[in-house]
Amino acid sequence: MNSIKPVSRRGFLKGSALLGGGLVVAFVIPGAHRFASGAENQGKVFAPNAFVRIGNDDSITVLLGHSEMGQGIWTGLTMLIAEELDADWSKIRVEHAPASAADYGLAGFGGMQITGGSTSTWMEFDRYRQAGATARLMLIEAAAKRFNVAPSGIRTESGVVIAGDRRATYGELADDAGKLPMPDPASIKLKEAKDWKLIGKPTKRLDTPEKITGQAKFGMDVQFEGLMTAMVARSPVFGGSVKSFEGAEALAIPGVHKVLQVPTGVAVIADHYWAAKLGRDALSVDWDPGPNSGLDSQALLENFRKLATTPGVSVSKAGDTDGTLGKAVKTLDVEYSVPYLAHAPMEPLNCTVSITQNKCEIWTGTQFQTLDQMIAGKITGLKPEQVEIHTQFLGGGFGRRANPTSDFVAEAVEVAKAAGAPVKTVWSREDDIRGGYYRSAFLHHARIGLDAAGQPIAWKHVLVGQSIMAGTSLEATMVKDGVDKTSVEGVADSPYLAGLAHHQVDLHSPKTGISVLWLRSVGHTHTAFVMESLIDELAEAAGKDPLDYRRTLLKDHPRHLGVLNLAVEKAGWKTPLPNGHALGVAVHESFGSYVAQVAEVSQDNLAIRVHRVVCAVDCGIAVNPMSIAAQMESAITFGLGFTLHSKLTFKDGQVEQSNYHDYQVLRLNEMPLVEVHIVPSSEKPGGIGEAGVPPVAPAVANAVFALTGQRLRELPLQLSGV
């Protein structure tokens, strides 16, 4: 658990100057700072990078080190603080905190400040509550001194401290509380679940009003006097570079000021976006395509297919798999494949940078503040603490804005450095989709043997796909003995293999020259599709109902069974459907949460129509059920996009798609009815932002098989006319 620690005198003094009167409670990773004594605080503040600020006007400001990209974390984490603080919810406001690993780093990520992996709530569940409880205890102590009563005779309610018939608001006590020494962390008692007033209550998001009125600031909205805009011409082939360029025609465009070569290509610096775009269009660049000019999707797939027939790096092995397969009554021998995928967020990448002699300021929507600071510092020659990041709202992230290379941030810093002026570097959507860092294509080859009762007795599974961790700063922790954990998650730890005496999982991680990155739900985007489709195939081979078959295989996994049973109950698994409709089911665990989904589909010529998705989720303690339901709906929408449409292909080293017209995501008219049912639980919270994605594709694929008899083993799903 990340613990609460005091901050330094220097930190206190800086915060006092910035914030004026009031109370601030900060908490950081172990060993980072120490709190100043009460005498030094002089009734002002505790730290500059505080999580909780209480002003004399009764305002309560929560600063979050996590990035808000639509997942509702501004509200969810704030609820944890407000719960223990007994705050008046109507007086709370939230701000993105500055980049500071010392204050906002996560122990689970090596002390780095990052938003990703569906970790925000479960990693911060204790720390944020402790911060609120600490502030509340200090306010009680301040009231006890003012009222001359014992703290035990004081209670709090909605931002007010009450001692009998005497009352004081938090704002009235803020200065007095600021003069007190920090309490012993061991004395901080958190509420019991039965006493929660906010946690578990459906709560509207705090950022919604600003987004509805257009007041919310995204990276693309950043604008100030003297700011110029840049667009970069990049090699159309991965790994290509500039041989030479001619910028005279670009400079002739009104509003274009400079044309500069930077490490990633050629930058056009202009007064505004349109001038920069026209200037880039007018550039003449001679590219050296490099070693990847022959990249071709079909050739890549054939190479993956050949690798799948050979032994790879061993992921897990038990018993005598080959020998037992030879004794099986029935054997399933199949191949599944998924394509490269782009993140395609609604807001394309952008980053604003201003560099002076002693400081680099960055305005962007980022998920990875710590690495952005480090890499910007390296480029500018500044220390990381001299790099100030102003995190903006993100118009979608899906992992693209949490790149271990900080690619779009690093490029923007290089552009501003070369330009010698503040510059906003903007990517078009075409740049975004063709710019690399994709979910890798994967191919799975599975051989599974069944006994006379139709139960699996041996399972041999080979995965082929690029590693997203190899060659990054995270390789040392995420790649062990040649195995990238993210490539095999969902297979290596599958409950279907857990009790199987004979199984073998191998992995090939070929290098293709294509830059790859995590995508929302990471490895589970392909492993859930394969594993849950395979279970349906095994049920068919065994002559059993796919639901009953799963129940038998999952008998020792109560949380899987719980969501499975709830989903099929709510979907009406045995209830007659309209003619031409069918149901499919899938269940999967990821990020500490368990999700089952039932999809109802029909066929319109060769098009698949998804009418309804019923979702059951067990994510442990449901901090904000409203956000959980929204995230499940969002995940299902996202998953349906690559289930039915999304696919990146390569020819002559170049991406063939460019925008939403040929890299399709789910359209509004395709959105099914979604029902979300949350399992009541007292377990520690699990992740929720990604866990709803994995079951979508297999649930739809299984429904399509039930409807048509066609077993589709490739994404996106495409019916055959045969």
TrEMBL record:
Gene Ontology molecular functions: oxidoreductase activity
Domain of life assignment: Bacteria
InterPro entries: Ald_Oxase/Xan_DH_a/b, AldOxase/xan_DH_MoCoBD1, AldOxase/xan_DH_MoCoBD2, AldOxase/xan_DH_Mopterin-bd_sf, N-heterocyclic_Hydroxylase, OxRdtase_Mopterin-bd_su_IorB, TAT_signal, TAT_signal_bac_arc
Pfam families: MoCoBD_1, MoCoBD_2
Record carries keyword Transferase: no
Aldehyde oxidase/xanthine dehydrogenase a/b hammerhead domain boundaries: 213-291
Keywords noted in UniProt: Signal
Species this protein is from: Pseudomonas silesiensis
PROSITE patterns referenced in this protein's UniProt entry, alphabetically: TAT
SMART domains for the chain: Ald_Xan_dh_C
Listed name of the protein: Twin-arginine translocation pathway signal protein
This protein's record includes keyword Signal: yes
